[in-house]
Amino acid sequence: MPYIILIAGILLTIIIVQLFRQRSGQKDFLTLKMLQDSLMQGLQETRLQVREALTSHADETGKRIEHLTVTTNERLKEMNKDVVKQVTQGLEKSTETFTDVVRRLAIIDAAQQRITELSGSVINLQQILTDKRARGAFGEVQLSGLIRNVMPEKSFAFQHTLSNNKRADCILFLPPPSGSVVIDAKFPLETFRLVIDNMLPDTEKKAAEQRFRLDIRKHIQDIAERYILPPETADGAVMFIPAEAVFAEIHAHYPDLVEFAHQSRVWMVSPTTMMAVLTSARAVLKDTAAREEIHLIQKHINHLAADFSRFQKRMENLAKHIELASADVKEVYTSASKITQRFGQIEKVELE
To answer: What's the CA gap between 51 and 10, in Å, rounded?
Structure first.
């Protein structure tokens, strides 16, 4: 802006000079020269003022720029700190998230592996439960494991033949009045898979449920007719169902079968409830063994009472002997005191 003013002043001076030259000629040349000198001096002063103004403005602008630079640097440093802090926090959160994702992926992989193993086990179990012989062997193996872990070895037998030539899967030899209890490990399961299949039409599913009910009822009847033989066995038998799902299905949706089993004195048990039955049977065996050993305990108590009676008599005799010995000791002490006194008197006489 000051340069524009200076240039405008110079142009104005030139124009004025030209005008004066045209109008006044040579006469007014001195006047024009004086005016020109005056203008040049004004222009010089203006130039100095403009220079000072520009210098002051440049200094002020430099200070402002320097202050702005300092402020900008400080703000940039603060922004850099904030950015570094946010980036660090973001990296930490990202690291935590990544670690959590990796951990969850590991859990998912382990769960998937277990699911794969479980699927293989389920397939094998389905193959076992499809065949009657394999299913029976599966039930007997599971029953054998439960009984051998709870019952004493001599209190049970597998594949025991009864007096009616029927072979029981297992029999528990319990004392009277309970009697021996037969356990059947086989169970009908041909239609159970159809009962729990939700893809079947309603008509087929109802037919499967009816067939399942008839199979269970017939199995209960067979157990009651074959394995309940009082007084050789107890007045009831056990139907072992080695599948909690079948046991739960019967008790949840077939209350008539449960009632029929109670009337037939056939107790349906699952692996879980079988443990309770075996624990009760073991308690009965322990109680019977304790009762059988009572006469021995009484015999030992009688001997102990006789020994204590003899000990008491001997203790009384010993007390009497101790009392006599105490009296003798007192008499001996008295005699010793008298003898001592005599010796003292004798010594005094000799001295005199």
So the answer is: 16
